[in-house]
Write a structure and sequence with these properties.
- With 160 residues, this protein is mostly helical.
- 48% of the residues lie in helices and 5% in strands.
- The protein has six helices and two strands; from the N terminus they run ααβαααβα.
- It has a two-stranded parallel sheet with strand order 1-2.
- Helix 2 runs parallel beside helix 3 (71-79) and helix 5 runs parallel beside helix 6.
- The longest helix is centred in the N-terminal third of the chain and has 22 residues, at 3-24.
- The chain is globular and about 45 Å long.
């Protein structure tokens, strides 16, 4: 996707994120909007993914450790046809799988996140299992800036 198209997609995604949060009457506006550009670039240009085969072995993996910024991720996955766009509007409704943090019951989500910082430790462990199996895939783990104070981050630094 060309840079100008990524820019337009980012604007479109932001508009949908705002509508989604307004519709649900809940969400993390700042975190979602500040994450949009990078998620758009990752999903529309950089990552090797296939909505028709979301569990393909050689897919790139994305872990949103900063799980409270999930609104653009839900929006992008719906736009890419990982699930029907109508389902997007069930966000944060009773019984919906689209909750306020990534939920791996939905295609395109590698792991549930919520406790900041756990994504790095879990993602690193999962990457090591793939290295042992000789698979070549990229792991992208999104962190929040202040996360290194978390115990799981210090554990990761000791192990890796």
């Amino acid at each position: 996707m060309a840079q100008v198209d990524l820019f337009r997609k980012s604007i479109e995604t932001r508009k949908t994120v705002l509508k989604l949060i307004h519709h649900a009457k809940t969400g993390h506006t700042g975190g979602g909007l500040s994450s949009t550009d990078m998620m758009v670039a990752l999903y529309y240009k950089i990552m090797n993914i296939d909505p028709k085969n979301p569990n393909m072995d050689n897919r790139d993996r994305f872990i949103l450790s900063k799980g409270h910024s999930v609104e653009p991720l839900w929006t992008i996955l719906a736009d890419l046809d990982f699930y029907p766009e109508e389902e997007l509007w069930s966000f944060s409704s009773f019984g919906s799988k689209l909750i306020g943090h990534p939920n791996n019951k939905m295609p395109g989500i590698e792991m549930n996140t919520g406790s900041l910082g756990h994504g790095l430790s879990v993602g690193s462990g999962l990457k090591k299992t793939l290295v042992c199996s000789a698979m070549t895939v990229r792991w992208i783990i999104w962190l929040k800036v202040w996360i290194p104070v978390k115990v799981s981050m210090w554990f990761w630094l000791l192990v890796v």
